[in-house]
Each structure stands twice: as structure tokens, then as C-alpha cells.
Amino acid sequence: MQHLVQAFYQGYRKLIRHHRYRWFVIGATLLYWFSPIDLAPDIIPVIGWIDDGLLATLLLTEITQMVTERIRKRPQADTIPEQPDNGPVIDVMAQ
Q1: With contact defined as beta carbons under 8 Å apart, do 58 and 9 qualify?
Q2: DSSP letters for 63-80
Q3: pLDDT confidence of 68, banded at 50, 70, 90?
Q4: Spatial CB neighbours of 49, under 8 Å, sequence gap ≥ 6
Q5: What CA–CA distances, in Å, run from 33 to 8, 10, 25?
Q6: pLDDT tens profile 1-49
Q7: Which helix (H) or strand (E) holds 57?
Q8: Single pTM value for the model
Q9: In terms of Cα–Cα distance, which of 52, 62, 50, 83 is closest to 15?
């Protein structure tokens, strides 16, 4: 059972990180989440919600990791460069 879960996780992660399949996987996950057809029906209390919760957690975790990695890879050109300290500023009124 553990191998099956690990294989599903690795496959899901590989597909969602591939640029061609990313939106398909996200859409399929949301469709499954809102669909009345489940592996474990929602009619059964708690057990029916576990598969939905795990899939939603997996989706949010992967999206968060991808966004975090993209932010870290982005060049830091947005920061304001430090001004060199040339000493005190003296204002002179010229006429």
C-alpha cells in the first residue's frame, strides 16, 4: 500500500511540475474534488473526506513549492541599490 501511495505522489508531482501537463493536472484535481464520484464516497463520514483532503493538500503543497522556487530564482533587480555614504550633505543656495 505504501508503494502505491508513494508512486501516486511521485507521478502527481512529476506531472504537475511539467509545463505541458500542469493545468490539466490542476483542472483534473479540482474536477475530482468537486465531483460527486469519489474513490471513497463523501456519504461515509470522515473516511469520505480523507481522499478529498489529501488531494487538496497535495495540490496546494505542490503549487506553493513551485511558486516559492520561482520567486527564489527570480533576479533580485527589484531591490533598491544602496547609496554610497559620501559624508554629510551640505545645501548651498547659489545665486
Answers
A1: yes
A2: HHHHHHHHHHHS-STTSP
A3: very high
A4: 42
A5: 16, 20, 12
A6: 788 888 888 998 899 888 899 899 999 988 888 887 777 776 777 877 7
A7: helix 47-73
A8: 0.63
A9: 62
Q: 3-state DSSP helix/strand/coil percent for the chain, to nearest 5?
A: 60, 0, 40
Predicted local distance difference test score (pLDDT) of residue 94: 73
Looking at the chain, how many residues does it have? 95
φ/ψ region of 46 (left if φ > 0, alpha if ψ in -120 to 50, else beta) reads left
Contacts made by residues 24-30, CB under 8 angstroms, sequence distance 24+: 26/59, 26/63, 29/55, 29/56, 29/58, 29/59, 30/59
